[in-house]
Amino acid sequence: MKQFINAKETLVTEAIDGLIRTSGGRLARLDGYPHIKVVLRTDWDKSRVALVSGGGSGHEPSHAGFVGQGMLTAAVCGEVFASPSVDAVLAGILAVTGKAGCLLIVKNYTGDRLNFGLAAERARAFGLKVSMVIVDDDIALPHLPQARGVAGTLFVHKIAGAMAEAGADLDAVTGAAQKVIAGAVSIGMSLDTCTVPGSPKEDRISDGKAELGLGIHGEAGVQQVDFTGARAAMAMVVDKLLPHVSGADNVALLNNLGGATPLEMSVLAEELARSPLGPHLKWIIGPAALMTSLDMQGFSVSLLPVTPTEVTALAAPVAPSAWPGLQGLVAIPIKPLPDGLAPIRALASAHPGRRALIERCCAALIAAERDLNALDAKSGDGDTGSTLATAARALVKALDALPLADITQAYRAIGNELSQTMGGSSGVLLAIFFAAAGDASASGKSWIAALQAGLQRVMQVGGAEPGHRTMIDALAPALAALSGGIDAAARAARSGADATAKMTKAKAGRASYLSEDKLSGHNDPGAEGVARLFEHLVTA
Amino acid sequence: MKQFINAKETLVTEAIDGLIRTSGGRLARLDGYPHIKVVLRTDWDKSRVALVSGGGSGHEPSHAGFVGQGMLTAAVCGEVFASPSVDAVLAGILAVTGKAGCLLIVKNYTGDRLNFGLAAERARAFGLKVSMVIVDDDIALPHLPQARGVAGTLFVHKIAGAMAEAGADLDAVTGAAQKVIAGAVSIGMSLDTCTVPGSPKEDRISDGKAELGLGIHGEAGVQQVDFTGARAAMAMVVDKLLPHVSGADNVALLNNLGGATPLEMSVLAEELARSPLGPHLKWIIGPAALMTSLDMQGFSVSLLPVTPTEVTALAAPVAPSAWPGLQGLVAIPIKPLPDGLAPIRALASAHPGRRALIERCCAALIAAERDLNALDAKSGDGDTGSTLATAARALVKALDALPLADITQAYRAIGNELSQTMGGSSGVLLAIFFAAAGDASASGKSWIAALQAGLQRVMQVGGAEPGHRTMIDALAPALAALSGGIDAAARAARSGADATAKMTKAKAGRASYLSEDKLSGHNDPGAEGVARLFEHLVTA
């Protein structure tokens, strides 16, 4: 399995260094690599209760990512899925603990309990006040007396963190942590196992199956269940949580186990809100990656009944950017669509001269249909002629309804017509051309200057310039010459269109994906269409 | 491919609803589902320049996740990897644009350019001031005149967002956006393709390979390269970026393309800092998922030369929690290890009575080695006897160095000895037992009360209680009876140890993983060891 690491042996220390480097100076580490991996706040003066957590790595951002003002004082990191040593924990405690004492927040795994426990004893031998709480929020194995500690640990980090930051004493912080632990429950579901660096991936969960009640170290779920979509998945998780709903006000924590996409997590958030648990939830934390299991494509939901004091603590701002904040779980505010989505239709009005001009242009494009299709077939799908001719026929039919007497409104109306009858990029670009010409005309520009403004906008939006082998290669010189009369414009358009036969490196549009030999020696069909149109106006 | 979605057709609308629900009331949407998917700020009064961005979905948190104070005013979301319609964009513009006007921030893809472009024209026909910038930061295809817009788009969102929030006018905001676009460059690398919902996954990148210069819609990379680890991967990306370094002060944006783990991203951050680009980087945004490509296991680095004004804009606080903030890229502060990691060794002192007692205890355990091993072999790996005997032999050897005359120091010293000579959980638990006994003794407790305090701590840390089929089943009754004399303690220990033979559901320790028939009918070897010890003290 490929991963962006250098070596299993240096993975954790390099990742910690990367975290510290990108923390803007908020974080430091102890000089104990590779054995002692302790991340610390740099703004810590030991005047308040220190919070130390940690455990095996592979659960990032837990725990080092939550070191900072308002959350942890230090994190003691083991190798992936392995408890840190007693010495490492002791180093962490000694580095941050002052007279106010230290609370150790430990997930309920034997190695962590023992190593943090012995380190606590050693620290006490120095006369330090050290208390320890053990988080056991997992409800996957209801009959196990030693429930595992999973994402509910974040509730403890945050609430104890806010209290310690505010200056509460060790007994108060410890008591608050114990209350949270007594109330927090969690359970997760995954579609795949995690990839442990340096180990082959276990292929345990077959197609159509998911694991409910998995662990965060690759431990198999309590049961394999049929996977039929996000709704049913969340329903199974909610089913396990519902019996634990106790308080009136509850916070949910929606945790990404590592490999679920933001889209999936948002769908799951919606399903959680719609579920029978939804009405019991007043606030939500996430969805976010908080307690991951490497790259596991799964999620967990943690639930905590809360007092107003705890809500305040959960909502308090913190330094670590990995903390997503507490949000009210709200109904979706839906605002009405704005007026104006239907194009404004000006009243029809007559202008025989303009009508005749438009009819002649349309006739030119209809007459060129077969030739332009043939030209397009040499480098494309052979439909440029039909696309233009179809739009021209529709425009002729619409002439009675157009506001021809008002040039500004006429331009805009032609743009609307083309955007509705002519598909694809060309239709949008011509709609933009005429809409922008209408705007320019409204601001007082002459009809020629208005068309030139339309061209400028098409070039800006479409990104094509003269020389890119598009219709612009004929249209730009034609409009530039138009003030000299239609003959001059037609000559310029023809010259421009013919020049496209030598442009073998198309730089915009579909032809930019084609090789030189497919383009050489024949005109771009769009540019040829423009030339035919102007030439037709001369002869008509 | 399994994903936590319900159906491809409802994926984007459900995900948007999930995002809005978990935004605490900050976000709303227009009533245009399923065709018009527009996410808006609820705190918007149209008094300042509106920023509208969007495009195909699948890049979350871009763009809806960045709607909020200080960043976008609205996001117009298409289906996965598909541009939103002209109507959808127009609805977004009309919903948020007041007299101050609106800036459209569009990534450089034909569909987005055209649809946002035509919507802008339509909005202008209503007399609204609308400008549009096109982000083209990708440098993977240096000869393509139409570079793609990728993660550098976030620089534009953030800097334009801060300016608009501060009340700058449309020209100033547009100009600032254009300057950022002119300076931003990005390139990415991936180890795997992305999984498009409803489509089979393309298996394009073989083992040992990576793609450099990929697109964010599953477009193949410009080249497949050998993948040899994070360092070489970052070196290739840096190599492409270095020629673009221009200013003195640069910001890097390290983007997770979706499926890289936080550990991998932190390793990549460290490699970026150590690379030849590192010295040019004063600030960093991320590592974070900012412009993803569904679940792609890849990353991108974007680079922007910045003025002090732009730094202020990038650092300004914003409402969206998906924005990770701007951080200084710093050297790693390394703090010295605290004193006290080496256990305090009290001076050796003699106490013949205690020495004799310890020697007798050790002799008891050494004598029981074979029996306890045999007992352990029935439910475990048969080494309990050897573990205890080895520790006992080591303790006897260490007696000359122990501070036996001071009971407090003697307890602590025995704990230290055991933690060093006895491996595994038992060693740590016994070390905790004696360390806690030492603490209790230091606080004035009698030697028996001190041992009972040690037991209490072992039960708290280890999580085992009487009845869990551990050595505690013999130790707890023995210590409770000890004040009545060693005979009473021995009887209590024996009774407790024998009771473990009927405990067929172990609730702690390794035996908790075993079935009943493996446990029934024989004593727990730890409890038996304790009983043998006390019995030996009676007879010795």
Which features characterize this protein?
Rossmann fold, seven-stranded mixed beta sheet, homodimer, alpha/beta, six-stranded mixed beta sheet, 540 residues, 14 strands, 18 helices, 2 domains, Serine Threonine Protein Phosphatase 5, Tetratricopeptide repeat
What this model shows, in words?
The structure is a homodimer of 540-residue chains. Chain A is an alpha/beta fold. Chain A folds into two domains: 11-194 and 206-328, 3-Layer(aba) Sandwich (Rossmann fold), CATH 3.40.50.10440; 352-539, Serine Threonine Protein Phosphatase 5, Tetratricopeptide repeat. Helix content of chain A is 43%, strand content 14%. Chain A has 18 helices and 14 strands. The first copy, chain A, has helices at 8-21, 86-96, 110-125, 153-165, 170-183, 230-241, 262-274, 308-315, 352-367, 369-377, 384-398, 407-421, 424-442, 447-462, 472-481, 486-499, 516-519, 525-539; strands spanning 27-30, 38-41, 50-57, 74-80, 102-107, 130-135, 185-190, 209-212, 223-226, 250-256, 281-288, 298-305, 326-328, 334-335. In chain A, the strands form two sheets. A seven-stranded mixed sheet of chain A has the order 9-8-7-12-10-11-13, with helices on both faces. In chain A, strands 1-2-4-3-5-6 form a six-stranded mixed sheet, sandwiched between helices. In chain A, helix 3 (110-125) links the parallel strand 5 (102-107) and strand 6. In chain A, helix 13 (424-442) crosses helix 14 (447-462). The N and C termini of chain A lie far apart (70 Å). The relative contact order of chain A is 0.07. The model of chain A has no long low-confidence stretch (mean pLDDT 92). Chains A and B meet through helix 1, strand 1, helix 2, helix 3 and helix 6 of A and helix 1, strand 1, helix 2, helix 3 and helix 6 of B. Strand 14 of chain A pairs parallel with strand 1 of chain B.
